[in-house]
DNA sequence: GCATTTTGTGAGGACATCCTCATATACTCC
DNA sequence: GGAGTATATGAGGATGTCCTCACAAAATGC
């Protein structure tokens, strides 16, 4: 499916690769500030110091831009998840939980456009739903060594709870006028630990 | 601040009130299906069986329509919260929790446009942020009789956790491909109960 | 029935956005 | 230097949406 329209190009020279990178950086910022719907191609091109024509030379559509941004994010995200999955068998479950928590919060803080793009139903559906599924799988696989005999369906249900709780934590992080924020986040984390402990047998 | 533009009218006759009600019903549906940004005034008017001019006679702006819809929702929501607050001193905290949970889930199920309108930063900001604050206050007041001596800031922080957990539950309810959904929701509820028990002294 | 007020209508102006295309510039390789 | 390719440009077409406005219809009171 790597067919490309005649007017859409892959960068062939260093200059092109730099431009694409600049365009994606700009898109990242604009999406983060305005969200997918309100972001405009003109604004993205302008912030990258390029013309609209240049933007459309590499991305045939606003959705394609968003998908490219998400693909970039996904790569970074999957790396961190893979590291956690590799380490999973050797760690205790509560250690995993208290590692996963700040990992995802930091990721969301470092990639402010991610939430708006990944959670919106409208817009870049291509990558977005795929990312959600991948993340559920990763978390399920991280949990698996600590839940011997549990089937994949149950694991993925638990993973959904874990991920949604993470999303909750991110939402709280961004909430204005919230007193005792660090304490609240700590309580959320503890709440999640209690949940995991209740669902999994005693860890080694 | 009840100043109104010359071209914007309050309904004076029964016919007008009916039309406004029909318009709000239609807006509810369209917002629920398309979200605030993608919803169009033309679609709202059409679904209400009215003309665009008629719509603009009562609502000067799309935001005003959304705000009116939210105001309607808020009224229904505050009623239920007030009932819980009134009953709070006489109930045990775990009873309150297991009442609050389905109450909010049912509310969201009955008012499918609520989430999209209340949670979006862009769009109807007028009502949306106000509703969030009101809800925090309600939950804080519901918790207060069971947390003697706890100051308002701490109560509102707990309320934020409770509300965000509710949002998690709603998100899980709407998640497709989630196996064991009822069991998962029950677990979430139990998780919240554990959290509350840990934060509050033993109830009477 | 007639005057007044409220309600209803839909064509179209103003504006913004996505995207195209013909053309110009920069680069590479011989 | 010149041919060939990749990159750059921005005016403008197509489209869609918000909202206005001049006027028509209906309801009310007398």
UniProtKB/TrEMBL annotation, chains A, B:
Gene3D superfamilies: Tetracycline Repressor, domain 2 (1.10.357.10). PANTHER family: HTH-TYPE TRANSCRIPTIONAL REGULATOR BETI (PTHR30055:SF234), HTH-TYPE TRANSCRIPTIONAL REGULATOR RUTR (PTHR30055). This is HTH-type transcriptional repressor Bm3R1. Keywords: DNA-binding, Repressor, Transcription, Transcription regulation. Residues 17-77 form the HTH tetR-type domain. PROSITE patterns: HTH_TETR_1, HTH_TETR_2. It holds the Pfam family TetR_N. The keyword Repressor applies. Residues 40-59 bind DNA. GO terms for molecular function: DNA-binding transcription factor activity; transcription cis-regulatory region binding. InterPro entries: DNA-bd_HTH_TetR-type_CS (IPR023772), Homeodomain-like_sf (IPR009057), HTH-type_TetR-like_transc_reg (IPR050109), HTH_TetR (IPR001647), TetR_C_15 (IPR041669). Coiled coil: none annotated.
